[in-house]
Amino acid sequence: MSSLIYNIKHIAGILGIKNFEVQKDAIISKLVIDSRSVIDPDGSLFFALKGQRDGHGFLKDAYANGIRNFVISEAKYTRLFPDANILLVQDVLLALHTIAKYNRNQYDLKVLGITGSNGKTIVKEWLYQLLAADHNIVRSPKSFNSQIGVPLSVWEITAIHTLGIFEAGISKTDEMDALASMIKPNVGILTNVGEAHAEGFVSLKEKLLEKLKLFNDADLFIYAPEYTAGLSTYDLPGKTKFSWSKKQQADLQILFVEPIDGKNYIRANFKGIEIECLIPFSDQASVENGIICWATLLALGYTPEEADKRLEKLTRVSMRLELKNGINQCSVIDDSYSADISSLAIALDFLNLQNQHPKKTLILSDIYETGKTNRVLYTEIAALLKQKHVDRLIGIGTHISESASLFDMEASFYESTQAFIDNFPALHFNNETILVKGARRFEFERISKLIAQKVHDTVMEIDLNALAGNLQFYRSKLLPGVKVMAMVKAFSYGSGSFEIANLLQYHKVDYLAVAYTDEGISLRKAGITLPIMVMSPEPSAFDAIIRYNLEPEIYNIEILQGLIGFLKTDQYPIHLKIDTGMHRLGFEEPDLSDLLKVLTETRKVKVASVFSHLVGSEDGLHDEFTRHQIERFTAMTELISETLHYPFIRHISNTSGISRHPESQLEMVRLGIGLYGFDAALKNNTALQTVAILKTTITQIKHLKPNETVGYGRKGLLPEGGTIATVKIGYADGYSRAFGNGTGRMLIKGKLVPTVGVICMDMCMLDVTGLDVKTGDEVIVFNNELSIAQLATQIGTIPYEILTNVSQRVKRVYFYE
Fold it and tell me: Quick one: angle between helices 176-183 and 92-105, nearest 10?
């Protein structure tokens, strides 16, 4: 939001729109790209961006949410809303950039620009912590660093700000110029440059040069020579340069890094003297990000003593919302480390995504450093909570408590976190979704511990952003109008139930598919309203199928006739399964005459879709058979269509079919394992994101003498002795016995360590000889480095089995950024 007054006519002038007629005067305070994420409808300007989904298709949704100001690029929509202000431009994204650039140019403030492959967001947030005492800072929300995220961030600059900190991310050439023109950094900071997001570049050097464009006009450039290899100092941007390095001479030359009690003590040479600092984290990524912040403070003129003092107080940055089970059948969304208007709006959108409980509760602390009076701030928040349909507010802090009269809803207020905790026994939480949102100083993690179920040491973390990203990846491969059926059978391939379905419903997939009726019932009870196909309907479940509005797969005459005999109403939707070569379930050509006879003689059912299953779509060896399946399916569905005389959806393509066989898309595709980050048709799952991480902890360390054995049957043997770690996962958790005796590997502190002995029911043992480990250390069973595909190879199975075998007793924790 800009402190300048931008009325809609002013915006039209900035965009060069002539002869613009104002339908209703409006002061624009918010730029909106998502029709669902609206804070202030009257002051919002909606941009119909064209990307993987065309924003013009969501104009009606934005209008329904109260927006009356639009930027569009398709003339046919100009008369869609007679009472709305419609700004017609050639390029909507360029219009967004133009407005952001204009706003940036109105303010003369120091700006730090950050780019690199990794660490941008953490460095930005830590610099905010380090510099907030001296400046009123505007910064990118979360990781808003793209062609869309940057303009939304820059728009937030107002007259009260004295420092801006913005990050910029690119994925291909010729992207940085636009970001640089909006950010206009005085100080440039280059973080780690590696292989991440390298697909759009022919070489690492090309990627580096594109990133450095951000700093072409910077007064100061802060970097590590290791990440600018191949370029001379003269080739680097910045009127002044400040370098840091662990390996060579630099302005800040790191001499050594020494771990101390979960922290890292760092000593360096600076201006001919030795200086020191303490980074309060143990992992190597945090050490590197901390050194970048150290270099930045020194380059900005802070003394080594002051820099050390501030760095030691750094706190961990949590960029993700965490969804977990709570007490008394509640769900808890934990965002207990930050509180500002932008992140509150994001968190409330995630709260609204949850449909599994009838009540939505917000626990909110005071919000600081907004530049607004308390009355203005909490009036805005009250309107936001009403718009987002929050049922109950618990406010904690003196400022929000003093503003209690502004909140027209069920509400209670406490002066402090401790006051809330003291009153907790008298509060009642039951069957509700609770969002915990607090500024760091309020220590809301104490509240989260009270209302969340204890999470076991073995957990599977599910990245909902990664799953949404995978969905968009496959959508980008579809022809216009092709629908998506998402497979959520088998507990969403082990990843969750309503948690996954809520996200898919939010992202507007067209259908869900489950294996059994009880899975569909669970989704309906959790508030899922999407059409749901049941793939294995039993006659005994017909009553429940109809009661919960589920749609059965019909694969033989007996099931069809049984359903028709049960139905009391007409036109009930069904899905016909055709066997084109799988030879598992489904009607074949000789069955069609009997099938069509039954269908034409009844009005009780209506065919919603006809589908089949590709057998080998991932493998080029089977391409001829795949083409045969598609041809056979097309011929059979043509015959069905000619007989029924009404349209239905056809679908045969699965995950790998979307990747390799665009001709198989038809009217709908079925997306399964690809959602969760695996596609046998893509080498190394290129472009897919890892959705699930399974982790556990070390229970005990033991030191063995030579030839001592480990585990049942004395199967584990360390001939030369060594150290073993017992970890809290076994075959009852889904870690197969086949991983025993060194077949399986896990990651500890970035090192692969083998299993020792047989896998027990609740635990197993690892050979950690030579590693510095202790009880409580984290152990990775699978993640993006040690993938499920690698685990499947280790025991001769497929990723599906690894993922779906993770037991229900392993707690799932869901993250959303």
Answer: 30
